[in-house]
Amino acid sequence: MEDARGQATDALAEIVVVERRTRAAVAYRRASAFLILWGALVAIGAGLNQIFSDRSEVIWYGVDAIGLVGTCVIALRRARDGALDRTGWEIIASFFVLGAYGVAWSHLLAPAGHDRLAVFWSTLMMMGYAVAGLWRGPLFAVCGLIGTVLSFTAFFFAGPWLHLWIGAIYAFGFVLGGLWLDRLGAGE
């Protein structure tokens, strides 16, 4: 009798592990399109900012506007297909709250200069990525922490190439991370 209870307990523990892994895989798949979109946009914006530093404000307003529209399109398409549940909407809302927080601080930090703002935004988004890892799966946390370390490294060592380095961090951290998460993820 004890042996049957032990087997049942072990089976339930295995089910819990599989359920947790499945949730993480679905979260990875759902997040990938958003990460790829924002990673590509920010990488392009950083490259343009490197070339046209006197147009920084216009570049980033454009990147943000395109990104917000793209985010809404992806979210609405997923909602229409039934693939966006309450948790998905909470993640999107959290992203917008994080963005609003960043905008508020950007106005206070503006006198610090474009380089410091670039690193601020990079680390803010990477920390959002890392925090998502606490709830949605450890690969988010790994990508976010690596991106944060690379952002600080860029600030101290990239010199005049800082914005290109930040763009590369987004390209690798978000675009390649999004592609990786999509591959690891499970379908709906």
Output the keywords:
188 residues
General description of the model:
With about 190 residues, this protein is mainly alpha-helical. The chain has one domain (about 1-185). It has helices at about 1-50, 55-80, 85-110, 115-135, 140-155, 160-185. Helix 1 (about 1-50) runs antiparallel to helix 2 (about 55-80) and helix 5 (about 140-155) runs antiparallel to helix 6 (about 160-185). The longest helix is centred in the N-terminal third of the chain and has 50 residues, at about 1-50. It is elongated and about 75 Å long. About 30% of the residues are buried. The model has no long low-confidence stretch (mean pLDDT about 80).
Distance between the termini: 39 Å
- Our estimate of the beta-strand percent is under 5%
Number of helices: 6
What is the CA-atom radius of gyration, in angstroms? 19 Å
Percent helix: over 70%
Mean pLDDT: 80
> How would you name the oligomeric state of the polypeptide chains in this document?
single chain
- Would you count the extended β strands for me? 0
Low-pLDDT stretches = none
| N-to-C order of helices and strands | HHHHHH
**Alpha-beta content class:** mainly alpha
What's the overall geometry? elongated
Biggest beta sheet attributes: none
Number of domains: 1
